[in-house]
């Protein structure tokens, strides 16, 4: 073992053995909430997850999955997959993109950085194009940050601005886009009064243009490219509430103003890479391109960015691989990067190809997931089961997307079907762990399917002007369950009761303990203790 390996060496846990295969299951969008008809997890038949709850409080508890517990600006911020999986994998709470951008805008440091200076070179003779999600959801971007950026560029010599908006109905209520567009139009009108030619240039729904992820469907990015870069869109209007198409040409600057990585990597590649074969770009303008953040630390993509991303280093995945833990990670395309890229601190690729295997099951594309709510849950369950039974791996890690992906469609009946499918996949994995004498840890990254209605302050469903309930398509602020068990779990292991505010970042140390190691000292504390039995 070389000196670098020595730095990675984890101390042996004084009480817990090594060598037990561990299944780490993340149910995406699976929070804990009161049981009513809008709680699809409650409505669905979920015997496996229900049976785990009976282990409370020793082997089942809740953990925080939103707000400051996962590095978001405030406790009013719902959790999301990026921050959730970052926390799960890294075992520490990092100030996340949303917060870092807030700080950089507040202090003005954003304008002193290399990224801003780079795009600023285009201000005198070119157009600045801003591309991103227009909402106040706070998951991928925030309208108030865009507004501050517009103000900032207007004070720093920009002459022409074109905003390419992606509308949201996923992190915010369906139909709320009109209000965000009006706000933006007002701001742009004010800039025009100051002599800056500022307009909305193109628009489209986020799931239809640009914001695909993990290469599920490059057509989504192509449709965005056609409108934003080539200026060719199927519908042309004069203004956004009326939309004027403005192509991106040589000499222009482009900023993708989303801070979250997964749904920006594909467009970043298309804007940045000279060699690119994912679709025919027709033209590849010579532009100055910067991301709000650098989206992929391993690929260094994009090379220019306005705000430095959180430095999520020394993740549990990297430690465990250095300590010989053979790791299998699997999900279907739409969540594959969650248990690999996000888990590993927004880093693509393997730490050690000899010890790791990442399996991606192709997702259905071109449909909304309420049409096939079972998604690939059983296929993920089967792959995990086979990996467990093969005895080739020490950690088998999966993400089951159903509660989240179907929850986002707002289709309550389909979400119930989705939750049942996820529960069945959990059973397959737990059964395999039973067979090999292993351990399981089942948790979730944030809430979604457990509450599908917008509520007033008292918690009752909020009614709109026509007296109808408003379906909630977004994530929630709810805590998520975590359960441990399996024949390999040492008899005296139980959840401690002195970490009541525990959150997702406490899970990594817990998993390291279950592998027989003590977590590094700066990790958030473990959730478990071992009592003599
Ligand atoms: O990108 C998305 O699908 C949503 O905005 C957030 O969902 P996720 O955080 O569960 O991926
Ligand atoms: Mn998620
Ligand atoms: Mn989601």
TrEMBL record:
SUPFAM superfamilies listed in its UniProt record: 2,3-Bisphosphoglycerate-independent phosphoglycerate mutase, substrate-binding domain, Alkaline phosphatase-like
Subunit structure: Monomer.
Domain of life, per lineage: Eukaryota
PANTHER family associated with the record: 2,3-BISPHOSPHOGLYCERATE-INDEPENDENT PHOSPHOGLYCERATE MUTASE, 2,3-BISPHOSPHOGLYCERATE-INDEPENDENT PHOSPHOGLYCERATE MUTASE 1
Localization in the cell: Cytoplasm
The protein's required cofactors: Mn(2+)
Occurrences of domain BPG-independent PGAM N-terminal (ranges): 101-243
Enzymatic reactions: (2R)-2-phosphoglycerate = (2R)-3-phosphoglycerate
Record field: transmembrane: none
One Pfam family cited in the UniProt record for this chain: Metalloenzyme
The organism of origin for this protein: Stylosanthes scabra
Keywords for the protein's UniProt record, in alphabetical order: Cytoplasm, Glycolysis, Isomerase, Manganese, Metal-binding
Involved pathway(s): Carbohydrate degradation; glycolysis; pyruvate from D-glyceraldehyde 3-phosphate: step 3/5
Protein's name in the database: phosphoglycerate mutase (2,3-diphosphoglycerate-independent)
Parts forming coiled coils: none
E.C. code: 5.4.2.12
């Amino acid at each position: 073992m070389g000196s670098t390996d020595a730095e990675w060496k984890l101390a042996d846990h004084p009480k817990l053995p090594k060598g037990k295969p561990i299944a780490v299951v993340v149910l995406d969008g699976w929070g804990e909430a009161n049981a009513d008809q809008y709680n699809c997890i409650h409505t669905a038949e979920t015997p496996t997850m229900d049976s785990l709850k009976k282990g409370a409080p020793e082997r089942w508890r809740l953990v925080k999955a939103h707000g400051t517990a996962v590095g978001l600006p405030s406790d009013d911020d719902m959790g999301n997959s990026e921050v959730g999986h970052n926390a799960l994998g890294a075992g520490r709470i990092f100030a996340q993109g949303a917060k870092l951008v807030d700080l950089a805008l507040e202090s003005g440091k954003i304008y002193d950085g290399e990224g801003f200076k780079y795009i600023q070179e285009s201000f005198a003779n070119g157009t600045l194009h801003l591309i991103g999600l227009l909402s106040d959801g706070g998951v991928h971007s925030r309208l108030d940050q865009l507004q501050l950026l517009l103000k900032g560029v207007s004070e720093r010599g920009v002459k022409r601005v074109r905003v390419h908006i992606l509308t949201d109905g996923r992190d915010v209520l369906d139909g709320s886009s009109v209000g965000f567009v009006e706000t933006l139009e007002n701001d742009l009108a004010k800039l025009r009064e100051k002599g800056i030619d500022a307009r909305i240039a193109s628009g489209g729904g986020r799931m239809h243009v640009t914001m695909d992820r993990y290469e599920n469907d490059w057509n989504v990015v192509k449709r965005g490219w056609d409108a934003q870069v080539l200026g060719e869109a199927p519908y042309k209007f004069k203004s956004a509430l009326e939309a004027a198409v403005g192509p991106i040409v040589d000499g222009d600057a482009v900023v993708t103003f989303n801070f979250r990585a997964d749904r920006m990597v594909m467009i970043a590649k298309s804007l940045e890479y000279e060699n690119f074969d994912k679709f025919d770009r027709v033209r590849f303008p010579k532009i100055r391109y910067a991301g709000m953040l650098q989206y992929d630390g391993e690929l260094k993509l994009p090379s220019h960015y306005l705000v430095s991303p959180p430095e999520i280093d020394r993740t549990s995945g990297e430690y465990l691989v250095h300590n010989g833990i053979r790791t299998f990670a699997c999900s279907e395309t739409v969540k594959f990067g969650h248990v690999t890229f996000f888990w590993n601190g927004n880093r693509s690729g393997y730490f050690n190809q000899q010890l790791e295997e990442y399996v991606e099951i192709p997702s259905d594309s071109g449909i909304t997931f309420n049409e096939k709510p079972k998604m690939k849950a059983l296929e993920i369950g089967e792959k995990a089961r086979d990996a467990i039974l093969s005895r080739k791996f020490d950690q088998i890690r999966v993400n089951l997307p159903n509660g989240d992906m179907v929850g986002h469609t707002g289709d309550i009946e389909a979400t119930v079907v989705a939750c049942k499918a996820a529960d069945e996949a959990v059973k397959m994995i737990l059964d395999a762990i039973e067979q090999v004498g292993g351990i399981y840890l089942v948790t979730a990254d944030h809430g979604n399917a457990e509450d599908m209605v917008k509520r007033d302050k008292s918690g009752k469903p909020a009614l709109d002007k026509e007296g109808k309930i408003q379906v909630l398509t977004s994530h929630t602020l709810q805590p998520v369950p975590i359960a441990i068990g399996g024949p390999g779990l040492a008899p005296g292991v139980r959840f401690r009761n002195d970490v009541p505010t525990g959150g997702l970042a406490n899970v990594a140390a817990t998993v390291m303990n279950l592998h027989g190691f003590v977590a590094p000292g700066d990790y958030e504390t473990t959730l478990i203790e071992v009592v003599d039995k």
